[in-house]
Predict the 3D structure of the following.
Amino acid sequence: MSHMPILFHPGRIAGAAAAALALVLAGCGRPVPPAEGPPPASLAKADPLIEALQPTPKGVRVIARYPTPDVAGDSVRAASRIARQIARAVQAGARDLPPDATVVTLDLYGVDVDKFGKRTPGRLFETDFDVGDLEDLDLKAKGPAAVLNTAIDLNVDHAGIDPINAWCMRYPHAGGDWCDMAGVND
């Protein structure tokens, strides 16, 4: 038996361990999303993947390009982020949105890879959003996929079939309405 004095009381050690465990577990919760910063002042500057805007009879077409081949749905995830930024810009009164616009169309272009490995640029899909729906959308309560779920129309091109199927299979809970519109959940 040692003759050294006991410096720590066993009850205090357990209390300190419990406090340390609580501190560690508090950091293990859901990650805090990064702050989005100020809303974009224009549709053209809403996201780095946006290349151009074109006027349409009912509003404006936002053309975005996903730069790499995609079969895992990452391009659709990027499109949901772009759509969220578009909604933020609309809510902030985007200066390049025509005053009488009723529809914002998002065209997403990407890279299609055929069975021989040949890469071909092409449009993945085109989806329309009602401007009023974007203005009224509660972005604090909804994630990026919720913006896709407000789409009023969706046209999928051949190059977009695999990415959309992959995304809808990975995130069926997030983009359910949009995936239904794409015909994935039929």
Observations:
- Strands lie at 50-56, 59-69, 103-113, 119-130, 151-156.
